[in-house]
Amino acid sequence: MSKSSFGLIGLGVMGRSLAQNILRNKFSLSVYNRDTPEEAHVLTSFLEHNASEILHGFTSLKEFVESLDSPRKILLMVSAGAPVDDVIGKLLPLLEEKDIVIDGGNSHYQDTEKRNERLGEKQIQYLGCGISGGEEGALKGPSIMPGGVEEAYKEVSGVLEAIAAKDKDGKACCSYVGSGGSGNFVKTIHNGIEYAEMQLIAECYHSLSLHKSNEEIAEIFERWNRTDLSSYLLEITIEILRKKEGDKYLLDLILDKAANKGTGSWSSQISLGNGMPTTMMTDAVFARYISTLKEKRVVLFKIVNRKTSSKDIDEVIVEDAYRFARLVNHQQGFSLVKKISDTNEWHVDLSEIARVWTNGCIIRSQLMEELVSLFRDIENIFDSKDMIARLSKLENGVASYLETSVRAKISTPVISSAYQYWLGMITDRLPANLIQAQRDFFGAHTYERIDSESGKFFHTNW
Ligand code: 6PG
């Protein structure tokens, strides 16, 4: 048997699709899946459905490793967390210097940094690789964000760039992000932005649904999707709104409890821990958490006897609010990428990240295309005069939207969050002077003065 050029561990949904993508691109592939009673059929079924002379399957890790060309290139597609360390622990004694291990799951970037060090001690090269696009993306072309040992990326770039989605110029939506855990970090923030984008659409749907049918909302979203608001998430929402089960809309039958796998909360923790006000992704996480308190919500609903307004919410102000909030969400998300990149000296190229996110990933959109060129010249959306002008122009629409939705008693946490953040950012004097005075009063924490030089601290015996 000739040796395979690439190896993949873990034939779950994403692993299977990526393996098929690799094979379609004519790279010889060895796959491994564990032989537990629950997964006994996984490997055989994959081999049956994808029979090819360039595909070899194994349930023995040793045979799998031996089937690979040196330096071995192994993509891990196992659940994030302990399973990754578990597989690495089993692989390590079988690997040799210069072999390359790529983690393609949604791992925490700080775990990736530790693994990078651990494998580096044995001269094994490690890449933490963000992969976005869900099952379909993995199969047809995902957006790929590899970070870690740059020499290792050069060895595997042929495969990764071949299987990735392509941008509008035909270039792969895959690019080396930087050293350490930068690849997984960037993917985590992608998900933070994704959480807020999803919640924004959900809030628009919620406001519109007071007086409009699912079909009418789908028509509105379809119209938006023909403008600068166009995005993959809006596109799938139109399909979701129209999906019927018999004579009922499937969406109306789905329980309103939003689940999560943790990356949204990680992105929020990263921003909180680093002094970054990415309020929208954080509120989007909280919105999911509030949704899970369904039983309590139902009890309170009955006690409060809540009635939503009978007044229709003008779809034009909903559109203004959505357009406004999306710009703010991207401003927050990319600022967080920049901040953590600077802290870690990763030198992440924001324009290149936006380009990698123009296709294959969940947050691909018309706006992302625009950001590719914008970030060639600036590093913060608020540094663009054009963006500030656009936000200012939309401001009244958002304010009307929020006024109406508050009166209508609809919860709009993330659109509100966008507007509050904007108000805070465009205010030259906030009441933080009072916070400083209170801190100094009870804890002698000191304060700076406007009539003294910056960096000089005062304490008052209040
Ligand atoms: C992607 C997605 C994906 C994510 C799922 C579920 O880019 O393909 O972000 O990686 O894991 O969408 O995430 P939640 O369960 O947290 O919503």
Could you explain the architecture of this structure?
- With 462 residues, the chain is α/β, with parallel strands linked by helices.
- The chain has helices at 13-24, 40-49, 61-66, 82-91, 109-120, 134-140, 150-163, 182-208, 214-224, 232-242, 250-253, 263-273, 279-292, 294-304, 315-344, 350-356, 366-377, 385-407, 413-425, 432-443, and strands spanning 6-9, 29-32, 55-58, 73-76, 100-103, 125-132, 143-148, 244-245, 248-249.
- The chain has a 7-stranded mixed sheet, sandwiched between helices.
- The longest helix has 30 residues, at 315-344.
- The radius of gyration is 25 Å and the shape is globular.
- The mean pLDDT is 97.
- Bound molecules: 6-phosphogluconic acid (6PG).
- 6-phosphogluconic acid (6PG) binds next to α8 and α12.
